[in-house]
Design goal:
alpha+beta, Alkaline Phosphatase, subunit A, seven-stranded mixed beta sheet, seven-stranded antiparallel beta sheet, 23 helices, 13% strand
Length: 688
């Protein structure tokens, strides 16, 4: 009884009831005033309607929540959209004063009232997440009480469940946030949560080098499965099947998933994957691209978010605000003639609010799994990456998205008191972003057009393909085959395929078909590197020299010099990836600004080399030791996270030795020693 009637809890309930009542009164008064033909009544009639709304909500919302939970997936989303409108419409229809008549009129009034309440509620909170947190806590307490009853416990419904003591690990990926950007934002004081962790010493931050391709699918293939070499880019062509793979397309991700999974993924021991490209062998997958499904009936976090007035309805209203904000910010860039910039219209107007909606859904799903006591959760939050692609990675609107993600980390930290485990939080990114005017903006042609210009126009020059090979390939192309020269871009990385040949071609073979292609691309001012096999070994060509990657032999001006000390190892590692192109292109990089020229129309890009796109970050509890010799490549991050899981006792299956300790492939060992020696010499030079 003391817990039930404790003064702080009673005061919180009274404040919540008064707030909801005042907001409902104001929005109903304004809505009825807007409706044509509605006769005026006194204030007491409206107060009575407020009480009626509360009573109808108390009866219908549990039923609607049950319906949302039972439907799951798209049904939950559709019912969640109209759940609050149904409550308001029923109350207006039952209004004793009968100011509205007819379901069409009642429906419009109910919709206006719900939208108005969401806007006013957000204004009262001044943009904070207090209401969102209260709803999440209510969900978590309900789940834990239900679990206690199912376990035969006698936990009273009004008593707050005790916080869990067993360890748990929550891994939150801030998509596209580079280590320099995060460090700068912390120093500027713009990230209160991460800044407090670092300044108080509970956490520490370090960078890690992604290598190429610096894309989310490749990084998550490494982080979640230790299989980064299975993915050569964001998009690629597979000669064996004649298929163009796009890694964020669900049907393609579903095909890629079995290639990555060996049953030993990061999340294999009861873990949960939320909003990721791949599963990590998780037991539960929610909004995971490779599983291509919305959360089902068992995901109460999904149902609660959809049915709550502070969930999906609030997100829709704020999403409209995001669109308006985007239109204003894009216009401001144009008026100021801010360069570099790209068009921010079209599909991006839908992607920006969708990313915000997905963020709130993901946090609700994380809250549910924290209440259920999932040992490990890995979730990807994409807000910053989506905005930075079109605005620029360090522009104000991108930094505002990073601040919002910091707030979400604060939300998860506050929800820890309701969790079934004592969760430790690790924050990491999958890559960074690099800024720059695009290839098309700089040179007046796309990379496809440049490749076409340097290719031989006469197909008779091509060596003949055996007739039996053509006969066996014909059934593989139910649609029009790929172009003879196919260019597949991922930021400022491009893979070029000669699709008529099933094997990967050597430079001599390419020169026979297209004599000007390699030399023409290597001499283009927008292309910094062309990597091609020569006599079976990869060689990087630049505008004034070449670099044989296996032994480091340089002729002329080293084309790798402008890309940093990891470049040779990065390119060698990438050459070992499956389905890599006959040619691998990296755009040029500005030596002063470190800007790159993306082959896509993105002002902030990632995928290749140059700038901050390969400089990811890792924030972890300060007392945890980094056991990997160096964090180079996502596979190394995978091994580090596995090691921490094992130390927490969350790796229930005995790990094999190569899960935690694994060195470079033999071909990269001399490159690593040479790179470390060069870095040491550079450090001594700077110190001197």
């Amino acid at each position: 009884m003391r817990a039930l009637f404790a003064w702080p809890r009673v005061l919180d309930r009274v404040k919540a009831v008064l707030r909801n009542g005042i907001i409902t009164f104001l929005v109903l008064t304004f809505t009825l005033w807007l409706m044509p033909g509605v006769r005026s009544t006194d204030v007491f009639d409206t107060i009575g309607l407020v009480v009626l709304v509360a009573a109808v909500g108390a009866v219908l919302r549990p039923l609607l929540l049950f319906g949302v939970t039972a439907l799951g997936g798209w049904g939950a989303m559709l019912l969640g959209v109209v759940a609050q409108v149904i409550v308001m419409a029923v109350a207006l229809e039952l209004d004793p004063s009968k100011r509205l008549s007819g379901w069409p009129t009642v429906g419009v009034a109910a919709l206006l009232a719900v939208v108005g309440a969401a806007i006013l509620d957000w204004m009262v909170d001044s943009g904070t997440d207090d209401t969102f947190i209260r709803e999440a806590r209510r969900l978590m307490r309900g789940i834990r009480r239900r679990q206690a009853r199912q376990a035969g416990g006698r936990l009273l419904t009004f008593r707050r469940p005790a916080a869990g003591t067993e360890p748990g690990l929550l891994m939150v990926q801030l998509d596209g946030v580079s280590e320099p950007v995060l460090r700068w934002a912390v120093r500027a004081g713009n990230l209160p949560t991460v800044g407090r962790w670092l300044r108080s010493g509970t956490h520490t931050m370090r960078g890690w080098h992604t290598g190429i391709p610096s894309t989310t699918p490749a990084s998550q293939a490494g982080i979640l499965h230790g299989s980064a070499r299975k993915i050569p880019g964001f998009r690629w062509y597979e000669k064996s099947t004649g298929k163009l793979m796009v890694s964020n397309r669900p049907r393609d991700a579903a095909q890629i998933q079995p290639r990555l999974s060996d049953g030993r993924g990061l999340l294999r021991d009861g873990g949960v994957s939320i909003g990721n490209a791949f599963s990590g062998d998780a037991v539960i997958n929610l909004l995971t691209v490779s599983h291509a499904a919305l959360p089902g009936r068992s995901a109460r976090g999904w149902a609660a978010f959809m049915a709550s007035p502070f969930g999906f309805t609030r997100a829709l209203v704020l999403g409209v605000g995001e669109v308006i904000t985007e239109l204003y910010q894009a216009r401001l860039q144009r008026r100021r003639n801010l360069l570099p910039r790209v068009s921010r219209s079209g599909a991006f107007l839908a992607l920006r609010p969708a990313a915000m909606l997905l963020r709130d859904v993901n946090v609700s799903l994380i809250a549910e799994q924290m209440a259920r006591g999932a040992p490990a959760v890995y979730c990807d939050l994409v807000d910053y990456d989506e905005v930075a692609h079109h605005a620029g990675p360090a522009r104000p609107e991108s930094m505002r998205q990073l601040e919002n993600l910091d707030r979400m980390l604060g939300v998860l930290e506050r929800l820890g008191a309701e969790a079934a485990r004592a969760y430790r939080i690790v924050v990491l990114s999958d890559h960074g972003q690099s800024q720059g005017a695009t290839f098309l903006q700089r040179y007046g042609e796309t990379l496809d057009q440049a490749v076409e210009r340097f290719s031989a126009p006469d197909p008779a020059q091509a060596p003949s393909v055996p007739a039996e090979q053509e006969a066996t390939r014909e059934p593989e192309f139910p649609v029009t085959p790929a172009a003879p020269l196919l260019v597949v871009s991922s930021g400022n990385l491009a893979l070029v395929y000669l699709t008529r040949f099933e094997h990967r071609l050597d430079k001599n073979e390419i020169d026979e078909v297209y004599p000007q292609l390699v030399s023409g691309l290597a001499g283009h001012p927008g292309v910094g590197l062309v990597v091609v096999r020569e006599d079976g070994e990869p060689v990087a060509y630049g505008p004034a020299g070449r670099h044989r990657l296996t032994d480091g032999e340089i002729v002329g001006v080293d084309p790798l010099e402008q890309y940093g000390p990891h470049t040779r190892a990065d390119l060698l590692r990438h050459q070992q990836a499956e389905h890599v192109g006959d040619l691998v292109l990296i755009s040029s990089v500005d030596p002063v600004t470190s800007e790159v020229a993306a082959f896509e129309e993105l002002v902030g890009s990632h995928g290749g080399l140059g700038g901050w796109q390969t400089e990811a970050m890792l924030v972890h509890p300060a007392e945890w030791q980094v056991t990997q010799a160096d964090l180079i490549g996502p596979d190394a991050v995978h091994r580090q996270l596995v090691d921490w899981l094992a130390q927490l006792g969350l790796r229930t299956q005995t790990p094999r030795s190569d899960e935690i300790t694994a060195g470079e492939p033999p071909v990269l060992e001399p490159v690593r020693r040479e790179r470390d020696g060069a870095a040491a010499r550079l450090s001594r030079t700077r110190d001197g």
